[in-house]
Write a structure and sequence with these properties.
The chain has 2 domains: 141 residues, NAD(P)-binding Rossmann-like Domain (Rossmann fold), CATH 3.40.50; 165 residues, Lactate dehydrogenase/glycoside hydrolase, family 4, C-terminal (L-2-Hydroxyisocaproate Dehydrogenase, Chain A, domain 2, Alpha-Beta Complex). Helices cover 43% and strands 20% of the residues. It contains 9 helices and 16 strands. The strands form 5 sheets. Strands 3-2-1-4-5-6 form a 6-stranded parallel β-sheet, sandwiched between helices. It has a 3-stranded antiparallel β-sheet with strand order 7-10-11. A 3-stranded antiparallel β-sheet has the order 12-15-16. The longest helix is centred in the C-terminal third of the chain and has 23 residues. The chain is globular. It starts with a strand and ends with a helix.
Length: 317
């Protein structure tokens, strides 16, 4: 990656998610250059101008609209392009439309830049991450999706609210598909080193199965609820994109539940889904096969089966 500018990021797609991510990244101070690319060049120009006008209140940065050739030296390429999820529509309903869009976008990216880290945010993120790996020719470690980073944040937030504790002190992951078959990994969740159900009892909660089911359902349905109320979700995922970019640019070796192609951990193979992974300057360094109980393992296999069925339908496997 010798010819890349490690202070440059490109965002492909300037809808609600792309523009919100651009704004969050601008405020982070992580990069000194950001190019926005969209099929609607005027939209990209408008978003770039709108964000750039706030630079006197932030850190110096070059923000502009461009074309695919402008991402040739970008260190990180964030792909948010694709059809938006509509009320009543599942993430998997989007698959045919967005795989078709990726077949035109990803080869264009690879044409101008073969060495960047590509972060896939478009939905269904697991299917599109797998598609991006196949279409780009990039090493698998440098193509991964935002996965269940946001779902895990929602999980931690709801647990923090329930237990009246700072969600930053909650260690818990949503794994599997970013979608309806996602799994709340209760068996590995903890606070201050204490298993989550023990901590619940410390706070006076003993109905573990009922409470666990309610919180997991709330996490799973969060996006649908937000979409029903305001037609789209974008602030939470924008913060997730910013967090992943921090881990990359600062080489933090942070453990994040990103979506990446699996090779045997927990019996999952040749499909992209979310498991905790160490993320740093070279992308996904190591996947971490966290401990799951038998029910969670069965649900993870079911999630894999569902995703593989979709991949087969769209001709990706």
């Amino acid at each position: 990656m010798a010819n890349l500018n490690n202070r440059k990021i490109a965002i492909v797609g300037c809808g609600f998610v792309g523009s919100s991510s651009a704004f969050a990244i601008m405020e982070s101070g992580l990069f000194s250059e950001m190019v926005l690319i969209d099929l609607d060049k005027s939209r990209a120009e408008g978003e770039a101008l709108d964000i750039a006008h706030g630079l006197p209140f932030a850190r110096p940065m070059k923000i502009y609209a461009g074309d695919y050739k402008d991402l040739s030296d970008a260190y990180v390429i964030v792909v948010t392009a694709g059809a938006a999820q509509k009320p009543g529509e599942t993430r998997l309903d989007l698959v045919n439309k967005n795989v078709s869009i990726f077949k035109s976008i990803i080869p264009e990216i690879a044409k101008y830049n073969k060495d960047a880290i590509m972060l896939i945010v478009s939905n269904p993120v697991d299917i599109l991450t797998y598609a991006a790996v196949k279409l780009s020719g990039y090493p698998e470690s440098r193509v991964f999706g935002s996965g269940t980073v946001l779902d895990s944040a929602r999980f931690r937030y709801l647990l923090g609210e329930h237990l009246r504790v700072d969600p930053r002190s909650v260690h818990a992951y949503i794994v599997g598909e970013h979608g309806d078959s996602e799994i709340a990994a209760w068996s590995s969740a903890s606070i201050a080193g204490m298993p989550i159900h023990k901590f619940c009892e410390l706070r006076g909660f003993y109905e573990h199965r009922a409470i666990s089911a309610r919180i997991a359902d709330n996490v799973r349905n969060s996006a649908y609820e937000i979409i029903e109320k305001k037609k789209a979700t974008y602030y939470g995922i924008a913060m997730s994109v910013r967090r992943i970019c921090e881990a990359i640019v600062r080489d933090e070796k942070s453990v994040l539940a990103v979506s990446s192609v699996q090779h045997g951990a927990n019996g999952i193979n040749d499909v992209a889904l979310s498991m905790p992974a160490i993320v740093g300057k070279d992308g996904v360094e190591t996947q971490i096969p966290i401990n799951l109980d038998e029910e969670e393992k069965e649900n993870l296999i079911a999630s894999e089966t569902q995703l593989k069925a979709v991949l087969k339908k769209v001709g990706l496997c």
